[in-house]
Design brief:
By secondary structure, the chain is of the alpha/beta class. It contains 13 helices and 20 strands. The strands form 6 sheets. It has a 7-stranded mixed sheet with strand order 8-16-15-14-11-9-10, with helices on both faces. A 4-stranded mixed sheet has the order 5-6-7-19. A 3-stranded antiparallel sheet has the order 17-18-20. A hairpin with a 4-residue loop joins β1 and β2. α11 packs parallel to α13. The protein binds pyridoxal-5'-phosphate. The site of pyridoxal-5'-phosphate has 14 residues, from α5.
Length: 470
């Protein structure tokens, strides 16, 4: 358990928790380019009362992001009220795939709101039917049934429920083990945190369900052995009988590093799950809807999961998430036993339909692939230049830049934090570092970003690393 710091009257910040930004304005160089404008001290002096109000009213755990008070967001830019503008490298938190504040999405939401249907629970509505049908048509086989929810964590809870129900039916009550991966993040609810692989986040749970087992993720950086045999050996070491595995859950890429598993590994995993009658679940909450340069992240593996979980980028705006799965699995529960108050909320459905239209019509997966190639070229060049970048990973418009202590694989959270702070002060907005030891600078701009903005923001990142390390 993280230690309690009596003097500060709070739990000491564990290694993987973001450092906080002081609410004291400092002079920073003013600048203006086509896409960035820094016109005030940082944080903007007039934003301090708003930030302080949030500190007073919200729990400590809500702190940690750069103190930029968002007022307006358009395309790939964020604006505050005091004349500052940033190129957005966060997409919120990988939400605004089709771009911020898109007119088509706003119009769809407004039109739906004006129809006066704002909520309808699980009662039928035409707009929910339209979205569910659209998603069923879009999803590859065998994921032909859709359950609409609100948050990514809920979709993981639902996937766990389906895996276990399916496992018990297929192999009896002992077939309940959920295998997932170290360093994984699947959300903050009880089940999703147990499926996650970050021990510090689970200490509050105390009585961890022994049916959740994590193995190393084959990222090729911290885990050098990326063979599928290593997966099997780890199960044996954890004394898991493969026959008792109900499901394997993985983020399509690990959010904390943007790392993908090797394609061969995933092909073995697919076959193994089929052989064991275990369900393969890809958590696409971050990876879906064009982010990685393909419409769905798992396309990079050339496999089809049994269940997928989705959220974030599905609407580019309002909260909507969903589970897509094999019909026989999705139909395991009787009527009325998989519900949620806001399932398929009409405004969120309207936003999702409009956002999916944009992602498809503008081929934003294609843009992510093209802009991503440019971005990753730049990042590889940075890695050769700065020895304290241990690893760069990702595909399309998601990247993780892992900062390490000199000559080691040990994450350097201080360096990552310093780089993010400098970059925000120069007009490129990122969220605070993520991943193992808080050492990863995560890059995830809206998929509408153009070449000029990619080059400009990548140059800013290079300047920040130079200032922080040289
Ligand atoms: C891969 C993944 N799964 C699940 C979640 C949880 O989603 P939410 O925050 O909407 O509950 C997240 C959120 O960051 C995520 O990145």
């Amino acid at each position: 358990m993280a230690e309690y710091d009596e003097a500060a009257n709070r739990v000491a910040v564990p290694l993987n928790m973001p450092r906080d930004f002081p609410l004291v304005s400092r002079e920073v160089p003013l600048l203006e380019t086509k896409y960035r404008r820094i016109a005030t001290a940082f944080p903007a002096p007039e934003s301090i009362p708003i930030l302080e109000a949030l500190h007073r009213a919200e729990p400590l755990a809500m702190r940690g992001q750069p103190p930029v008070v968002w007022d307006r967001a358009e395309g790939f830019q964020i604006f505050d009220r005091w004349g500052n503008a940033w190129i957005d490298w966060s997409s919120g938190v990988l939400v605004a795939n089709a771009g911020h504040g898109r007119k088509e999405i706003i119009d769809a939401i407004v039109q739906q709101a004006q129809s006066k249907l704002l909520t309808n629970y699980c009662f039928p509505s035409e707009i929910r039917a339209r979205l569910a049908t659209r998603l069923c048509e879009l999803m590859p086989e065998p994921m032909k049934k859709i359950f609409l929810l609100t948050t990514g964590s809920e979709t993981i809870e639902c996937a766990i429920k389906l895996c276990r129900a399916h496992g018990v039916k297929a192999g009896g009550r002992r077939k309940n083990v959920i295998v997932s991966f170290e360093k994984a993040f699947h959300g903050r609810t009880l089940g999703s945190q147990q499926a996650g692989g970050i021990p510090a986040l689970k200490e509050w749970i105390v009585n961890i369900d022994p049916g959740f087992v994590q193995v190393e993720f084959p990222d090729g950086f911290r885990t050098r052995d990326t063979s599928f045999d290593f997966f099997l050996r780890q199960l044996a070491e954890a004394k898991v009988d493969p026959a008792n595995v109900a499901g394997v859950i993985l983020e399509t890429y690990q959010g904390g590093s943007a790392s993908f598993a090797p394609r061969e590994y995933m092909k073995h995993m697919r076959d193994w799950c089929t052989g064991q009658r275990a369900l393969l679940v890809c958590d696409e909450v971050q990876a879906g809807f064009g982010r990685t340069g393909t419409m769905w992240g798992f396309e990079h593996y050339g496999i089809a999961p049994d269940i997928t979980t989705w959220g974030k980028g599905v609407t580019s705006s309002l909260p909507l998430a969903f589970v897509a799965g094999r019909p026989d699995v999705m139909d395991l529960f009787p009527p009325g036993s998989m519900t949620s108050t806001h399932t398929g909320n009409p405004l969120c459905c309207a936003a999702a339909l409009a956002s999916i239209d944009l992602v498809e019509r503008e081929n934003l997966a294609g843009n992510a692939a093209r802009m991503g190639a440019l971005l990753h070229d730049r990042l590889r060049a940075l890695k050769s230049r700065f020895k304290r970048i241990g690893f760069v990973d990702g595909k399309g418009l998601v990247a993780g830049v892992a900062c390490v202590k000199p000559g080691t694989l040990e994450p350097d959270g201080d360096l990552a934090f310093d780089v993010v702070r400098r970059s925000v002060e120069k007009g490129v907005l990122m969220f605070s570092p993520v991943g193992f030891g808080g050492g990863t600078v995560k890059i995830s701009p809206p998929l509408v970003i153009d070449e000029e903005a990619i080059v400009e923001s990548a140059n800013v990142l290079a300047d920040c690393f130079a200032e922080a390390t040289e």
